Amino acid sequence: MMKEKLQAIKDEAMKQIQASDALDKLNDVRVAFLGKKGELTAVLKGMKDVAAEERPIVGQMVNDTRTAIENLLEETKRKLEARAREEQLKKEVIDVTLPAKKNNVGHRHPNTIALEEVERIFIGMGYEVVEGPEVEYDLYNFEKLNIPANHPAKDEQDTFYVNKDIVLRTQTSPVQARVMEQGRLPIRMIAPGRVFRSDEVDATHSPSFHQIEGLVIDKNITFADLKGTLEEFAKELFGPETKTKFRPHHFPFTEPSAEVDVSCFKCGGKGCRFCKGSGWIEILGCGMVHPHVLEMCGIDPNVYSGFAFGVGLERIALLKYEIDDMRLLYENDIRFLKQF
């Protein structure tokens, strides 16, 4: 009876092993016959009911059956694994004659290139780069810059108001006011950053753009220092032959104030389409810091003086790379950006 039972278990196991076409099915067969609750294990648990003199014979029969099942399981496992590897290799075959995929690596945006160039120039002159909040108090964006509540400049700048006391900054000058308030003198800094004005989008305007504003506060600073600084900046940025011209202007936070032109680096000042025939290109505004601005920021105007200037980053990028439409900088057209 025991021999017939073991033979039946062996035959059934062999049949199921040979029918297995996947490793998980083969493992199910192993568990069903050799596991803790398997059929062969159940036979071993029933050895206590076998007569003592027959136990060695039955034990040997059980071991032979187990060995036969295990050998077939192992052989079948190797075949299935080999078949799986072969199928995987067929799926993962690589045609080395095909062209390789291009690794498209991005690069710096024209605005970033221009900003890094301006920062390099001023850091070389001993300036530090300072950043400030884009959402700013009206106090710093206007009042501490000598632009009180009823000043017409508030209307001219078309400000985005969060509420009556908080605005999206219209310039990076609030960073200068914050630094002056700290009272750590002397000051030599530039403040680059994003600014916001309620402008319609066109070739030269955007509701969001970037400015770089500079500030120097020290004893005995004069307009001559301002002129020398900006002349050196223009030559470094546009070439050593560049000339500068200062025209009187008005800004509420500087007195006296001026706008600065540079000689056209395209035609050398002779007049061309790029400079509209004038030989000059306007690049920035500047002036000596207004004494009242110094007072409001806790600096004695009788002891200290200084100058400030501001330039649009997009203006620099448009001029330097001869781009005629500001909107191209923001459209993310890869055909345009690949040129830089």
From TrEMBL:
SUPFAM superfamilies hit by this protein: Class II aaRS and biotin synthetases, tRNA-binding arm
Cofactor(s) this protein cannot do without: Mg(2+)
Aminoacyl-transfer RNA synthetases class-II family profile domain ranges (all copies): 118-331
Cofactor comment: Binds 2 magnesium ions per tetramer.
Residues holding Mg(2+): E255
Record Gene3D superfamilies: Bira Bifunctional Protein, Domain 2 (3.30.930.10)
Domain of life: Bacteria
Coiled-coil region: none
Keyword presence, Magnesium: yes
InterPro entries in UniProt: aa-tRNA-synth_II (IPR006195), aa-tRNA-synth_II/BPL/LPL (IPR045864), Phe-tRNA-synth_IIc_asu (IPR004529), Phe-tRNA_ligase_II_N (IPR004188), Phe_tRNA_ligase_alpha1_bac (IPR022911), Phenylalanyl-tRNA_Synthase (IPR002319), tRNA-bd_arm (IPR010978)
Gene Ontology molecular function, alphabetical: ATP binding; catalytic activity, acting on a protein; magnesium ion binding; phenylalanine-tRNA ligase activity; transferase activity; tRNA binding
BP GO terms, sorted: phenylalanyl-tRNA aminoacylation
Localization (cell): Cytoplasm
Pfam families: Phe_tRNA-synt_N, tRNA-synt_2d
Catalytic class of the enzyme: ligase
Keywords from the named record: Aminoacyl-tRNA synthetase, ATP-binding, Cytoplasm, Ligase, Magnesium, Metal-binding, Nucleotide-binding, Protein biosynthesis
Principal place of residence: cytoplasm
GO cellular component: cytoplasm
Record's keyword annotation contains Protein transport: no
Protein EC: 6.1.1.20
Catalytic reaction equation(s): tRNA(Phe) + L-phenylalanine + ATP = L-phenylalanyl-tRNA(Phe) + AMP + diphosphate + H(+)
Family named by the database record: Belongs to the class-II aminoacyl-tRNA synthetase family. Phe-tRNA synthetase alpha subunit type 1 subfamily.
Quaternary structure and partners: Tetramer of two alpha and two beta subunits.
PANTHER family: PHENYLALANINE--TRNA LIGASE, MITOCHONDRIAL (PTHR11538:SF41), PHENYLALANYL-TRNA SYNTHETASE (PTHR11538)
Name assigned to this protein: Phenylalanine--tRNA ligase alpha subunit
Species the sequence originates in: Murimonas intestini
